[in-house]
Amino acid sequence: MKPTLIFLALASMAGLSAAAEIAQPHAAGIEAKNYLWNKPNKTLTRALKQKADPEKGKIAYEECRGCHKADASGRPDAGYPQLAGQHTEVLIKQMLDTRSGRRDNPRMHPFIAADAIPTRSIPDVAAYLHGLPVPDTNHKGDGKNLDHGKALYDKDCGKCHGAAGEGNGKEFHPKVASQHYPYLYRESMDIRDGQRRNADTKMVKILKSYSDEDVAAVSDYMSRLPPVM
Amino acid sequence: MRHRSLQAIAGLTLFAGGIAFSAAAETVKGDPAKAVPLVERLCMACHGQDGNSLIPSFPKLAGQHPEYLLHEMQEYKTKHRDNEMMSPVVLELSATDMANLAVYFAAQKPVPGTPSEPGLLALGKKIYLDGNSESGLPSCDGCHEENGKGSARFPRIAGQNPEYTMEQFHLYATGKRKFGKKVMVTVAERITEQEAKAVAEYIASMP
Q1: Could you tell me which of B57, B96, B91, B97 has the C-alpha nearest to residue B76?
Q2: pLDDT, mean over chain B
Q3: Domain that includes residue A175, residue range
Q4: B153 contacts in chain A (CB < 8 Å)
Q5: pLDDT tens digits for B26-74?
Q6: What is the rounded average pLDDT of the residues B176-181?
Q7: Tell me, what's the pLDDT at A80?
Q8: How far apart are CA B201 and CA A145, in angstroms?
Q9: What is the pLDDT of residue A43?
Q10: Are A108 and A191 part of one and the same domain?
Q11: Cα(A160)–Cα(A172) distance, rounded to whole angstroms?
Q12: Looking at the complex, does the CB of residue B136 fall below 8 Å from at least one CB of chain A?
C-alpha cells in the first residue's frame, strides 16, 4: 500500500479504507480510430455461444442484488438500471464492456471484475435476468413533453430499439421500455457527449442534434412504454 | 441444486481466493459428537460451548453455515486468514476435526445480541436494506438476506458481536482480509465509520 494513498484516504475521511479502490482498467473505445461498437471480441463471442444456465445465474446474481435488487428492478435514485427482461446479448456485452473498461463505470467495476464473478457466470446471470418479469413500477419523467418525446422516438429510435421499445438482442440494441427515466436520461446524455465509450456510433450522430430537453422528452417517453417481455 | 460431500477437504485447497465456496451450495459431512472434546479443549474459552461467544471481539459461531465455518478454518490453516488466537489453534486440527466442528457449531442455537447503541439502529437498518446510493455502497441484504441468516454462499451475520463485525470491516478495508470475498473489500472501502458502526449494531440486534 502506498503511503500517499493512506494519507489521501485519511485526509478525505471517506470510508474506512486506507487503500484506494482498484481502478477500473481502460480499454479502447469510441475514441479509437477503427472502433466498431458491435464487433464481438473473443471473450464476447465465447460468452454469447456458451450454453447458459439461468438457475446458476440466479445464484451468481446474488452479489448484484445489493444494488440492482432481488427483482432486478434497479434503483432510480442511484441511477442503477432495471435489468429484468433485458436481452441476454445486451447484458453480456455490457457486463463484459464494464469489466474490460470499455464502458466506464468505476462504481460497478469491482462487482463485475474477474475476481468477483467468474467469466462463465456472466451468460448465466444474463439468462436469469432475461427471464425475470419486467416491473412497470419504474421511475418516469415529468410527463410534460411526451408528444415531442414520441415524435423523436418514432423518427430516430424505433428503427433500432423497436416501436414498442423492445430492442433487438442479436443486434445488441437494448430494450428501453419501462427503463428508469434517470438512467435513460443519463446514458443518452453520455452517448451524445461521447462519455459512453462503448456506444453505437450511429446513435451518437443522431443524438448530436438533440438539446438537453429533447433527451429528457425522449427518455420520458421510453420510460413510459409498457413492459415488453 | 446439487449437493456434494465436502469430506475430501483436500479439494478445498483448489478453491481460489475470492471465489472460494461460491461455486455451489455444498453440504459439510461431519459428526458433531466427535467435536465435543475439541470444543471443550480448544474453542469454548473464546467462542462459548454453544458458540454464542460472550466476549465482544470474538465471533459467535452458533447457527453459522457449516460451509462457511469449514472454509474459514481452512483459510486460517492456509494462512489466507491470520489471527494470533485462531491461527495456532487451527494448526492442530485435521480435516475431519474441522468438518466435525463445523457441523457442531452449525447445529447450536444462536442467541441474539444486545445492541450497545440503540440510537444507531435506524441508520443501521437503512444501510443494511438500502446501502448508500451516494457512495455506491450496496445494501447488505443482497447477499446476507433480509433476515441476516445468509446462505451456503454467504455467512450468517444476524446477532453477531458488533466489535467483531467492526474488526472485519477494518480488516477488509486495510487489505488484511484480502482472500475473503472481493465484494466485501469494496463494501468496506465505501462504508463510512459511522455507517459501519450503525450497521454492526443493527446486525447485532437481529434475531
Answers
A1: B91
A2: 88
A3: 146-223
A4: 59, 62
A5: 589 999 999 999 999 999 999 999 999 999 999 999 999 999 999 999 9
A6: 86
A7: 97
A8: 47
A9: 96
A10: no
A11: 10
A12: yes
Nearest Cα neighbor of B96 from B41, B47, B29, B39 is B29
Residues in chain A, pLDDT under 70: 1-22
Going by C-alpha positions, the residue among A92, A200, A76, A79 that lies closest to residue A138 is: A76
pTM above threshold 0.90: no
| Backbone conformation region of residue A119, classed left if phi is above 0, alpha if psi is from -120 to 50, else beta | alpha
Structural contact between residues B98 and B70, judged by C-beta atoms closer than 8 angstroms: yes
User: Which residues of chain A have a Cβ shorter than 8 Å from any chain B Cβ?
Assistant: 1, 14-19, 21, 55, 59, 62-67, 69-70, 75, 77-78, 80, 107, 110-111, 113, 115-116, 118
Search chain B and give the residue with CA nearest A13. B192
pLDDT at B46: 96
pLDDT of residue B114: 80
- Asked if A18's CB is within 8 angstroms of B173's CB, the reply is yes
Of the candidates B131, B140, B183, the beta carbon closest to that of A111 is on B183
Residue of B nearest to A80 (CA): B133
Question: Residue A203 belongs to a domain with what CATH number?
Answer: 1.10.760.10
Q: Count of domains in chain A? A: 2
**8 Å CB contact of A116 and B18:** yes
pLDDT above 90 (res B2): no
SS3 A66: helix
Look at A15-19, B130-134, B148-152, B161-165 and tell me which has the smallest mean pLDDT: A15-19
pLDDT of residue B10: 35
Q: Do A59 and B140 touch (CB under 8 A)?
A: no
Closest-CA distance, A121 to chain B, in angstroms, reads 10
Hey, which residues does B132 pair with through a beta bridge? Answer: B137
Is residue B193 less than 8 Å (CB to CB) from chain A?
yes
Pick the CATH number of B9-106 from 3.90.640.10, 2.60.120.200, 1.10.760.10, 1.10.10.10: 1.10.760.10
* Complex ipTM: 0.87
Q: State the alpha helices, DSSP H only, in B92-181.
A: 95-106, 121-130, 141-144, 162-173
Q: 491470520: which residue's cell?
A: B82
